[in-house]
Amino acid sequence: MSSDKEIKFPEETLELVRRMMKRYPEGKQKSALIPVLHLAQAEFDGWLSPQVMDYVASLLNIQSIEVYEVASFYSMFNLKPVGKCTIEVCRTSSCWLMGAEDVIRHIEKKLNIKTGQTTADGMFTLKGVECLGSCGTAPMLQVGAEYHENLTLEKVDSLLDNLRKEDKRKCYTDHFDPQSN
Amino acid sequence: MGKKLLLEKDHVPGIRSYEVYRKEGGYASVEKAIKSMTPEAIVEEVKKSGLRGRGGAGFPTGMKWSFLAKPPGVARYLVCNADESEPGTFKDRYLMERIPHLLIEGMITSSFALGANTSYIYIRGEYFYVARILEQAIEEAYKNGWLGKNILGSGYDLDLYVHVGAGAYICGEETALLESLEGKRGNPRIKPPFPAVAGLYGCPTVVNNVETIAAVVPIVNQGGDAYAAIGIGKSTGTKLISASGHINKPGVYEIEMGITVEDFIYSEEYCGGMKGGRKLKAVVAGGSSVPILPADLILKTANGEPRLMSYESLADGGFASGTMLGSGGFIVMDDSTSIVKNLWNFTRFYHHESCGQCSPCREGTGWMEKILHKILDGHGSMKDIDLLWDIQSKIEGKTICPLGDAAAWPVASAIRHFRKDFEEYVQNPSSIKDVHHYYRLNDLTEA
Ligand SMILES: Cc1cc2nc3c(=O)[nH]c(=O)nc-3n(C[C@H](O)[C@H](O)[C@H](O)COP(=O)(O)O)c2cc1C
Ligand code: FES
After folding, report:
1. Residue B245 to residue A94, Cβ atoms within 8 A
2. What is the CA radius of gyration of chain A?
3. pLDDT at residue B378, as a whole number
4. Looking at domain A85-173, does it have CATH number 1.10.10.10?
């Protein structure tokens, strides 16, 4: 549980944060806020608690309120606990035309939750999201960094079965850093 | 086959890697620019090419570059807009994913032309795996001496970084993007000052779309005149079109500007015709923000001329009977499509994505969504159609950034061209299978 865990990045993530801050000019370290929030969300159970946001503020040497106002603006940041695996279904234009509504209804039924909710076993959260730039392969959904495209209800079923076996949340931690050498 | 400038090497196996890209002639524009051209000469070639911004507004790139302020001792920035969040648009992702070095090369050549020593690629957070592809390409470019200190022994230094966003359509708007890059909420800035004078960190900045920057590579390699010779009128060169919806072959197509819309939809080279042989009902030609046109007006202008895939031809007739090329997000709808329900979906999108700074947009998008709900629910009246019209007219042109216009135009055009569809929902709700969806639609918009 996140509440028992000490809120601190492991050393290699801290090193990555320091390198990220160097990508921006002297005195503009706040620019690293969004990338660092991604790291924090991946590290601390997929969501940003006030304690986690305070920790990020201390790393970047900015006020906590500066972190809250940013975290609450962007749809990828979760301010409430989420399941082990967040399923994000595109519900916009072309996906909508190609059957996104059926996909969403199907997942809702299968997981017995509504969009925006988490399953009772804490496994899945279902989110409706806006166009993810995959309109030519609609309908689609995203899990972690992975795109699942040209969906059919059968594909969705086998995806859910596979996902039960994995934890996709960590995708944002293995961030490639070109300045590392 | 039309001429390809950006996707010419798309089918070369391994083109994503540095070795193959280089072997296929990659990075020639950097060599040419740095070794034999002055920054001013590059800007001149870009002006000659007639290249217009591919992010949606179509502003002449050479002109934008020449506006960049150059106060001595002040850093200048080039920021690539890889936010790509206009619904219906997926060309930048395709390009970055398949030929990442083309964007990196364009960034280096363009940064040199603008005198920028630090440049950023701002990419939407959801394209996380694409960001990693770009970072790998950047690392290869550093290793091979195309980035870093003293590039090609010229004394020119450039650092290039990828910066990921976190999900917000508004961050595609260039000043919101800059705010976001500074680690803030994506609230657009009041212009002036324009980014060319006060952009990133208050310094002179050029913001360009991925495709625009990629197009600088063939322009520098082949010369602005050669680029301008392709296309039609002021729509020079090639354009990436993201085709989606009810067609046989959705995907990204590089077209020579000036082919007919009919050819684009029906020929085997492009969309391959309507899916299931159904009838074309409507097209949104340039991303969700541009006016929707019914089949007859997208295929032919009001004067009966064939409509062409170009900035001018798509805009022919103004908003009364035309539309815009926009981002090239070409969404095709067949005769099974409910225009009203589709509009509700667009309006829901804009309501969700409004940053909330300006009341007409923040409140107006919400009201339009609610009224469309009501109509879809079978409780609409004729007055509601007029009310929708009234609301959109009070958003357009009255906001800090053009998101307000982008939310208003789909509503105005749908009512202008498909008023009968709205009236049918109002007058005869029991005949429409989508009615009584109010609560169902409503819970779809949760979260
Ligand atoms: C609401 C809104 C969203 C936008 N989204 C994008 C986008 O995702 N990508 C993009 O390149 N331009 C987008 N633009 C246009 C940018 O503001 C800007 O004009 C563009 O990046 C300039 O580059 P260009 O001249 O190369 O097109 C958007 C504009 C608005 C008003
Ligand atoms: S509409 Fe779903 S990815 Fe674009």
Report:
1. yes
2. 18
3. 85
4. no
Please state which of the ranges A80-84, B66-70, B125-129, B376-380 shows the lowest mean pLDDT.
B376-380
Q: What homologous superfamily is domain A11-79 in, according to CATH?
A: NADH-quinone oxidoreductase subunit E (1.10.10.1590)
Domain ranges of chain A: 11-79, 85-173
Contacts B345 to A, Cβ<8 Å: 91-93, 96
**Cβ contacts of B316 within 8 Å, gap of 6 or more:** B301, B302, B303, B305, B307, B322
The owner of tokens 């800090």 is: B400
One DSSP character per residue, B267-309 reads STTTT-SBGGGPPEEEEE-SSTTSPEEEHHHHHB-TTSPBPBS
Residues 165 to 184 of B: which have CB under 8 A from any A CB? 165-169, 180-184
Residue A4 in contact with partner chain B when CB distance is under 8 A: no
Terminal CA-to-CA distance of chain B, rounded, Å? 45
A103 in ligand 2 pocket by Cβ < 6 Å?
A: no
Q: What is the mean pLDDT of residues B386-401?
A: 98
pLDDT tens across B213-269, in order? 999 999 999 999 999 999 999 999 999 999 999 999 999 999 999 999 999 999 999
- Residue linked to tokens 């395709």: B94
Which of A31, A12, A14 is closest to A23 using CA atoms? A31
ipTM at complex level: 0.94
* Cα→Cα distances B194→A156, B57, B68, B197, B200, Å: 46, 15, 10, 6, 11
pLDDT score of A21 more than 70: yes
Q: Tokens 């105005």 label which residue?
A: B412
